[in-house]
Amino acid sequence: MGCVVSSKSKGEVKKIRKPKPWKLPQVITQSQLMQMREEFWDTAPHYGGRTEIWEALRAAAEADPDLAQTIVESAGVIVQGADLSICYDERGAKYELPKYVLSDPTNLIQAR
Fold this sequence. Notes:
By secondary structure, the chain is an alpha+beta fold. The protein has helices at residues 30-43, 51-61, 65-75, 99-102, and strands at 28-29, 78-79, 86-88, 94-96, 108-109.
């Protein structure tokens, strides 16, 4: 478990990227999306794992991909896929991030 991120069969490190475009079942506004994100991050430590890893994952999720790469490497986070949706800490604790904290849905609307 000494690696920082998952690697391809040739030993290449996967670069962190935003998830592919996705759509919520219902149309939501930016403020509703922000509320969903805040609720997730407020409750995330209660799902298990270490608080400092949750904080690093939040910082990575809110950063551009290059900075996110640096954050997860510095925190010792092991990324299963390149989009940060499933990660592990060095002790093997699993951290699952929903798409709505990683990127905006395609059916996001502006409030009037």
